[in-house]
Design brief:
Length: 234
Amino acid sequence: MYDAKKFVNVVDRMVTVAESMSDDDAVFTELTAALTAVFDIVGTSVLVLGDDDDLHVASTSGAIEAIERCQTAVQHGPAYDAFRGSRIVAVADIARARHRWPQFVDVAAHAGIGGVAAFPLQRGNDDVMGSLVLYSTVSRAWSATDLDATRVLARLAIAQRASAKQLRTMTEVSEQLQHALESRIVIEQAKGVLAATSNIDTEAAFERMRHHARRHRMRLRDVAQAVVDYRVRL
């Protein structure tokens, strides 16, 4: 059974972390630490689908790194079953799953693992993006309440990660548009300066700047800024 008070506290902390996180997987680091504390278990891991279409460990808590190295090496285990089947895989006694994941069970048992539960990581109807795995040192009958609490935290983490990505994309687009606008302003100013000093029209001024930029392998904006600052005469 999970600790309800810790659950409320970690939800609050995850929201706080999401507001200031600087990379996509920071929320998964918080998620693994939170679940380990809420369920009083030995460790938690998040595996995310990479560009090579394989699962890679994004975050772990507790002494389970060796277990995840084994699982990703042999490409079978609870994380892979949850990911491939888009379903929760809960095993109360890991010894009874030896026929399903022989190598994984050997390594997990050697590390003192008694029970395991794996969840697919999925946002709405999107494709499954990875899996979340909980590890207990004792055999554990994962209750419906345990599973529901884990699903809630996992969904929160996925939503926060997606929101952070969207925010960064919007920020990048905004910065690009701002840069383009500033460049356009400088170029228009330079066209006016060049037209006035060379007694040509603005179209000819633009072509002259563009020719200079190509010839000297410069950015058009840099040429325009030099014209405005009277550092170059064309």
